[in-house]
Amino acid sequence: MRKFMINVNGKSYEVEVEEIREGTTVKPAAAPASPAAPKAEAPAQAAPKAEEPKAKPIAAPAGATTVSAPMPGTILDVKVKEGDEVKKGDVLIILEAMKMENEIMAPQDGKVVSVAVSKGASVNSNDPMIVLQ
């Protein structure tokens, strides 16, 4: 159990977070310590959900262009596959971010060398998604 002090809108809250590691059992927590500040109510523990697919790391060959995620989001569709020839402006990926569909386009003509994401994957800003050569 780890304790953290969190400030929300100018108010401080002391919270306790239990770290759960794979393969370990969770022991019930001891009696709560007296709070130094108002304690945020812990939300009801949700059932564990299936882990979202993540973008896999890729190595770009020398002289290649890496197309990275411009913002965090979820991959709705991958329009190309390895070996495809693309022209500048062709749509490579549809990325959902902030409930909007964003078309990620090829920055140049080239051949798709590697695709690091798949439909449903979550990406963060600057995560590599496609390599063009």
TrEMBL record:
<dbReference type="InterPro" id="IPR001882">
    <property type="entry name" value="Biotin_BS"/>
</dbReference>
<protein>
    <submittedName>
        <fullName>Biotin/lipoyl attachment domain-containing protein</fullName>
    </submittedName>
</protein>
<dbReference type="InterPro" id="IPR000089">
    <property type="entry name" value="Biotin_lipoyl"/>
</dbReference>
<feature type="domain" description="Lipoyl-binding">
    <location>
        <begin position="55"/>
        <end position="133"/>
    </location>
</feature>
<dbReference type="InterPro" id="IPR011053">
    <property type="entry name" value="Single_hybrid_motif"/>
</dbReference>
<feature type="region of interest" description="Disordered">
    <location>
        <begin position="23"/>
        <end position="66"/>
    </location>
</feature>
<dbReference type="InterPro" id="IPR050709">
    <property type="entry name" value="Biotin_Carboxyl_Carrier/Decarb"/>
</dbReference>
<keyword id="KW-0092">Biotin</keyword>
<feature type="compositionally biased region" description="Low complexity">
    <location>
        <begin position="27"/>
        <end position="48"/>
    </location>
</feature>
<dbReference type="Pfam" id="PF00364">
    <property type="entry name" value="Biotin_lipoyl"/>
</dbReference>
